[in-house]
Amino acid sequence: MENAGHHIHKFKIKKVDLLQYTFFQHALLGSLLASIACGIIGTYIVTRRLVFISGGITHASFGGIGLGLFTGISPILSAALFSVLSAFGVEWLSKRKDMREDSAIAVFWTLGMALGIMFSFLSPGFAPDLSAYLFGNILTINQVDLWMLGILALIMSGFFYLYIRPIVYIAFDREFARSQKIPVEIFEYLLMMFIALTIVACLRMVGIVLAISLLTIPQMTANLFTYNFKRIIWLSIVIGFLGCLGGLFISYHWKVPSGASIIFFSILIYAVCKTGKSLIKK
Fold first, then answer.
1. Which residues cross the membrane (predicted)?
2. Average pLDDT, stretch 159-164?
């Protein structure tokens, strides 16, 4: 009994110690801020069916990372600029009658990846470790990343609070939105910019390969329980945060990459909710 008590006491100390580490505190705060940002803009992505476009922007951001490594400026800053320009490019090309939307996405998707690989190999000094950008590691996020996520989450919260009605109109019916004298094009470009910035802000957490999952899986799970736009946002934030927490602890206990663990746990939540809903219906 005494031995068992000793083990429990040891476990409690280990658990408390984990929360005392600055990197783990950053990871928890980053998870919350990313869940808010992704919950808000991800609801628009899923409602407007922009998942493929968002995937294109995510991969295009790799070009900005390569450019940053080559020129010596912050890869996240150059990725943000490259992603926003790519998002505007996709939006502009997809509006043209002589270019299909999926073709426009493919152009920026492949161009971004190609430039990213070329610039990475041309960058001076040692070959950079690209796995951190491709697969992410939430435990490496720093105060600059937290500030970026926090400011982005705050701006988007304010923007959606003020303009939720026109955003919902555009998400569900752009022609109706135009009939209500809403400047649809301006809103679409602004929302594309928010998509690009959210993707870049989450690169440290889950990486290029998995970033799109953070913007879609919590929303898909929330959509199982409600079709209300505002409720999907709130539920997505909660589900996204639970996914991040579960992924963090899986990563810590199994010693596996945190980005993949977060997405795995988020899909697990979706599968459990989907199965539970099907069983209740039967």
1. 21-45, 65-93, 105-126, 146-164, 184-201, 232-250
2. 97
